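Researcher: Quick one. two chains, 443 residues in total.
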Amino acid sequence: MLALVNVFAEAAATDVNQAVAEATAKNPILPVMNEMFWTLVFFAILWALMKFVLLPPVMRTFKERADKVRDDQQAAEAADTARVDRLEQYEAGLAGARSEAVKLIEQARAEGDAERRVQVGAAEADVASLRTEAAAEIAGAKERARGELTSSITDIAVGAAEAVVQKSIDRSAQVSVVEDYVAQAGKN
Amino acid sequence: MIFGLEFPPIENLVEWPNWFGPKDSFYGFNKIAFISLVAIVATSVLFILGNRKRSMVPKGAQNLVESSVAFIRDGIVLETMGPDGMRYLPYLVSLFFFILIGNIFEVIPFFHMPANARMAGPAVLALITWAYYIAVGLKHQGPKYFINAIAPPGVPKALYILVVPIEFLSTFIVRPFSLAVRLFANMLAGHILLVTFSVLCITLFTASLLALVLPLSFFMLVALTGFEVMVAFLQAYIFTILAAVYIGSSMHAEH
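Model:
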C-alpha cells in the first residue's frame, strides 16, 4: 500500500516538476541566463569605459569652460573697475584742469587789469604832458598875438592920432600907453 | 486567432534564438545581447565623436554629449544627491545611455525589439543598482547603514514594529523588484502594442471593405511609434533618477 502511494507520489511529483520546468522554459517573462550574462558583461564594460575613458574629457571640458567663464567674468569685472578708476582719474584731471584754467583766467585778468592800469596811467601822463605843451603853446601864441595886437593897435592908434593932430607922434612914447590899455583890456 | 486576427504567440515576439552558442548555455549570443553590444558601441562612438574636437562652444556630437551629461548631472545627480553625488555620475550616465539605447531599438527598423522588453536586462541593472546602493550605504555609514535603513531614527519606538518590516521590504526587496518590473513591463507593453497595430495593418491590407479601416490603424501605429520613443526616453530617465535617489538615500542616514 505504502509502495503504491510512493509510486503515485513520485509520478505526481514528476508531473509537477515537468509542468514547472515546461512553464519556466516557456515563460517569456522570466529572465534567461544568457541575456543576463551579456547584459552584465556589456554594462560592466560601458561603466568602466564611461568612468575611465568616455566621461573624463567631457568633465574636463565642463571644467575648462567654467574656468574660462569665471576668468572672463573676473577679467570683465577688472576691466570695469579699471574703467571706473580711469573715469575717476579723468574726472579728477578734468576738475584739476578746470580749476587751473580758472586760476589762469583770473591771473590773466589780474595781469590784464594791471597792464591796463599801467597803460592808462601812461596815457594819462602823455595826455597831461600834451596838455601842458599845448597850454604852453597856447600861452606863447597868446603872447605873440598880444604882442602883434599891441603893435598893430599902436600903429593904428599912432596913425589915427597923427591923422587927427596932423603931426608926427613919438611912437615909442605911445607904445607903453597902448600896452597898458591892452593889458587892462585883457584883464577885463 | 482573436477576432479573425492571426496574432503571433507571445514567445515569438520576445524570444530570440541564439546566433552562436548552444541553446541553453549561459553565453548564448542572441538579438538581445547584440542590442546590448550596440548600446555600448553606440554610446562609445557618440562620446568619442563628441570628445574628438572639443571646443568652448559645442557643436554637433559634442553638443549632444554635453547636453546629455549636463542633463543627468543637473537634472538627476545634483537634484537628488547634491554635489557629493558627482562621483556616481559615470554609473548613472552609463545606466541612462544603456537603457535608452536598449529601449530605442523598439522603433529602429529591422530590429523592432527593445532589449528591456526582456526581463534579463532590467533585472541585471536593478540588481547592480541594488548592490551599488547597499555598497554606498556601507561605505558612508558603515554597518549602521542596515539599522538606519530599516529603523529610521526619530520614529516613536512603538511604531518600529510596523516600520522595520515595511522599511526592510521597501528598501531591500521592493526597490530592485519595482525598478526591474517598471522598465520591463513598460517596454514589453509598448512592444506588444506596436506588434498589435502592425499585425492589424497587415491583416487589413486586403481587397475587401476592411481596407477602409487601414488608415486609422496605420495612423495609430505611427502615433504609437512616436509615443514609444517618448516612453523609451522616459523609462531610461525614471530608472536613472530612481537609482540616483536610492544611492543618495544611502549616503546619509534618514532623519
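Chain B has one domain: 10-251.
Researcher: Thanks, that's what I needed.
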